[in-house]
Amino acid sequence: MSKTLFDNIWERHVVKNIAEELDVLYIDQHFIHEVTSPQAFDGVRKRGVGVFRPEKCLATADHNVPTVNQSEPIKDPQSAIQVASLEKNCEEFGIELYSVGHENQGIVHIIGPDLGITQPGMTIVCGDSHTSTHGAFGTIAFGIGTSQVEQVLASQCLVLNRPRTMKIEINGSLNLGVTAKDVILYIISQLGTEGATGYFVEYAGEVFENFSMDERMTVCNMSIEMGARGGMVGVDQTTIDYVKERVPISEEEIDKWLSLNSDEDSVFDRVTAFDGKDISPMVTCGTAPDTGINLNAKIGSSKHLSAKALKYMQFDEAALIADQKIDYVFIGSCTNGRIEDLRAVAKMVDGKSKADHVTVWVVPGSMKVRAQAIEEGLDKIFLAAGFEFREPGCSACLAMNEDKIPAGSLCVSTSNRNFEGRQGPGSRTILASPLTATASAITGRVTDPTQIMEFA
At 454, is the pLDDT very low, low, confident or very high (cuts 50, 70, 90)? Predict the structure, then answer.
């Protein structure tokens, strides 16, 4: 019987079937950060069970860390407590930790792939919804709640209902200025925030096959924003080359990875197809990720834009999104904080400057990404353009740190969510690609990146 990539990985990790579609699933890799782990560690401590397989866990500090002066003590008391608690818990239970200042520290979903820990065929969890990022490698990767974090610490397993499968296929060539971020914003705008609820999505077709691993990670990262349990891409030479650059891999292991791929006649519970030529550079205009519109559109053209969101964003539905003056640009997060993202930003802004009234933060996703950017001289380009080049962390993606967008300010952000107050109380967020964010930083208003690219 033909099987999908998801079927192959899931079935190889079932420890025990409890009931129809309910399994005990073994977890290969557990990533941990400071926000969702303290109660879980308290749970295993109180129950006296300890951590079953600490070698299968890896922790980092990312959500609460400042992105300036990381060598100094964390100023925010709550953030300092959470990071200190993570350090204490990891030391007590023998879990490897990359805390502030460590050369491998960074956003949890960036360091896993970059260090060669994320590999095809794995089951991966973390107490963070954007764990779906790792699915780009042909893995079953998904976010879990704090009680489930405790389950994995105690048993390295989870009791789970088996999700349904969905294939999203996009063929054809992409237009000028269209990036992986635009592709996923387009998909979400078509399906809505609940359009893939209950499904594990496999992305297939020429567009995803031609994407780099960094681009595939961007797409899989935002699978959760349309309700999916996770997203994944099949294993190919691009995947293999990425992993081999980071860790030694045997030919036997590679053959095993390739055998996981969906059969040509695999049957999915749902199949959706789009044409690459229909996708333009996208931005959101409301307070949900499904309010994406192309940069030539009127704000009211979004079919998912509510009156409440329109009021919060202080927009006129008859106005063009490209006419909106901005205050901040944030380039970073687990969606777009990788080295390819920073290279694209540097290439566009090289020799240019930001608009005087705009504040721009460039936050690399890890210490490794930051070091690579400095080695390539990208930091000098950012600074010459008036951008701030900061230290690694989640930063203004969710403002659980000092990087908050002021109330009322409009920020073009390369992150993954634009909920009310997500980037700071009263802040307003437009989700965009690194190219669109950079173009907007240069002009001071929401800008189609092709306007800059054409004259570069």
Answer: low
CB 110 within 8 A of CB 369: yes
* pLDDT in the model for residue 86: 97
Q: What confidence score (pLDDT) does residue 455 get? A: 44
* 30 to 70, 95, 99, 235, 310: CA distances (angstroms): 26, 11, 16, 21, 39
DSSP code per residue over 70-128: TTSPP-SHHHHHHHHHHHHHHHHHT-EEE-TT-TT-B-HHHHHHHTT---TT-EEEESS
Let me know: does 335 contact 219? Beta carbons within 8 Å: no
Q: Classify domain 164-278 at the CATH topology level.
A: Aconitase; Domain 2 (3.40.1060)
- Is there a shared CATH topology between the 5-160 domain and the 164-278 domain? no
- Predicted local confidence at residue 323, as pLDDT: 86
Fold category of 291-453 in CATH: Aconitase; domain 3 (3.30.499)
- Rg over alpha carbons for the chain, rounded to the nearest Å, is 21
State the Cα–Cα distance between residues 369 and 374, nearest whole angstrom: 9
Tens digit of each residue's pLDDT (9 = 90 or more) over 111-170: 999 999 999 999 999 999 999 999 999 999 999 999 999 999 999 999 999 999 999 999
Residues 6+ apart with CB under 8 A from 100: 61, 65, 70, 74, 83
- Mean pLDDT along residues 346-369: 98
**Distance from C-alpha of 244 to C-alpha of 444, rounded to nearest angstrom:** 41
Q: How confident is the model at residue 453, as a pLDDT?
A: 85
Contact 232, 220 (CB under 8 A): yes
Tokens encoding 227: 């309700």
Whether residue 51 is predicted with pLDDT greater than 90 in this model: the reply is yes
Can you read off the two tokens belonging to residue 420? Answer: 């009310």
Torsion sign across C-alpha atoms 384, 355, 178, 231? positive
Q: Mention the CATH class of domain 5-160.
A: alpha beta
Give phi and psi for 277, each to the nearest 5: -70, -15
Average pLDDT over residues 3-23: 97
CB 445 within 8 A of CB 323: yes
Q: What does the angle CA 455 – CA 451 – CA 416 come to, to the nearest 5 degrees?
A: 130
Tokens at 160, concatenated? 């789970």
Between β-strands 29-32 and 123-126, what pairing exists: parallel, antiparallel or unpaired?
Answer: parallel
Rounded to two decimals, the pTM is 0.97
Spell out the domain ranges in the chain: 5-160, 164-278, 291-453
Q: Are 106 and 371 in contact (CB under 8 A)?
A: no
